[in-house]
Amino acid sequence: MKTSALATLAVAALLALTVPACAGPAATPVNDVSPAASGTATAAPIVTPTPIPKAYTNADLAGIVRQVRDSADRRLTVLPETDLAATIEQSKEMVAAIEVAPAACKEFATASTVPALDGAAMAMGLSTDSGTGAVTALSLLSGLDEAALANVADPAAQLQQCSDMTVTVSGIAVPVTIAMLDSVGGLAETTAYRTETQLPDGQVQSTITAQAIQQGVVLTAVATGGESETDAATRAGALLDAAAAFIK
């Protein structure tokens, strides 16, 4: 259960960062005549400095995850840094090995994954409830550039394009659907969606993913199992809210 949940979380975090950003060219002056050369005095514009988000380390983010409590007031189990790196690599290999239709969703799932995470700090934590089978996981990611953050902030187009997919793993085709959700957690501009996977034995596995950005840190919560979809959404939203309170 632990490995499966962490792999799900890693894939969710990676998928949110996979679409490469297309930065426009730098603005080119219309001419190279300076105000002084033209003989016209021009008042210097007042520039308001853009706040620079705090640069977090892996240890900083792990410390935040250790302070977070889930909706049942339990502390999370933090994944050690070495295990986290191995989990991410395994997840990338798993995503790269699958076949996806429509084909554009395959590109969404695999393009530019490694460059997006180079130099970024990351931490993950996990909460489990053996009584209900609920698993809730949290990831914090810091150090992404503005282009990558922009992709995380507005993934709606990609999610809508890939709302109905067929994923083939080791020759077995599995239907996967994605539906956007509203009112998950209390953070502004949170993106939340439900992923349903129809397994070969007829069962349907449902996962709730919620994501937000707080002071340049990407917060991702993934919830599976439990009593209902509403319960899973509540757990995911609670983790985002709790983590955001520690990011100033």
Can you characterise this structure?
The structure is a single chain. The protein has helices spanning 2-15, 35-38, 58-67, 81-97, 103-110, 113-117, 146-153, 156-161, 229-244; strands at residues 77-78, 99-101, 121-129, 134-142, 164-169, 172-181, 191-198, 204-214, 217-224. With 248 residues, the protein is of the alpha+beta class. The protein has a single domain, classed as Protein Transport Mog1p, Chain A, CATH 3.40.1000. The chain has a 9-stranded antiparallel beta sheet, sandwiched between helices. Helix 1 crosses helix 4. It is globular and about 55 Å long. The protein starts with a helix and ends with a helix. 36% of the residues are buried. Residues 1-38 and 110-115 have low confidence and may be disordered.
Give the topology:
Blueprint: H1 2-15, H2 35-38, H3 58-67, E1 77-78, H4 81-97, E2 99-101, H5 103-110, H6 113-117, E3 121-129, E4 134-142, H7 146-153, H8 156-161, E5 164-169, E6 172-181, E7 191-198, E8 204-214, E9 217-224, H9 229-244
Antiparallel strand pairs: 1-3, 2-5, 3-4, 4-9, 5-6, 6-7, 7-8, 8-9
Helix pairs in contact: 1-4
Report the end-to-end length measured between terminal Cα atoms.
Answer: 33 Å
Which strands sit side by side, in order, in the main sheet? Answer: 1-3-4-9-8-7-6-5-2
| CATH architecture annotation | 3-Layer(aba) Sandwich
Mean pLDDT: 76
State the share of residues found in helices, binned by percent.
25-40%
The CATH class assignment is Alpha Beta
- Low-confidence runs (pLDDT<50, min 5 residues)? 1-38, 110-115
Give Rg in angstroms. 21 Å
Order of helices and strands: HHHEHEHHEEHHEEEEEH
- What is the CATH third-level topology name? Protein Transport Mog1p, Chain A
The domain count comes to 1
How many helices in DSSP terms? 9
